Amino acid sequence: MTVFVKPTLAPAPRSKQARFVAVAFAAILVGIVLTQLFTFDHLVELLPSIGLPFSGGFQYAIAPLIVVAEVFALPFLLTMTVSIAFRWLSMFCGWVAALAWIGIGSYLLINGIDAANTGLLGTVVEMGSLATLIVGLLLALLAAWSAWGLWPLRSATKVIEK
Fold this sequence. Notes:
The structure is a single chain. This protein has one domain. It is built from 6 helices and 1 strand; from the N terminus they run αααααβα. It starts with 15 loop residues before the first helix and ends in a 13-residue tail after the last helix. The protein is mainly alpha-helical.
């Protein structure tokens, strides 16, 4: 037994469609992350200004946490060679990113807050509450399909020796 983490190959996808959906989800997340990082200084200020229920410094931590979740979802979606624990974390981050945008969009719609921009695409493209909710639901659908198609424990994976 060793204390060092061993990288493992990802299990083969269940189907070609599942692989395509995972890569499409990764491409969408890359597009979202690029627009968010392009205007990140404004994004950090935008999310607290739209009236989310968080208080204190956590309002300013929401944007970085969502961006980190979106970036950390990529290794699972692209079936990179990582440890099993990181593969699970990466799959979880895809869900967190989708659920964060569903939560923001639904909170604003339920409370009748009319936000011209929610920050889904940074401040490059303005998206309202309903558009954010719809895109969040689409991301959740892609996350579910990707998790089904690339499930980490579906088959034994080979450990790469260095």
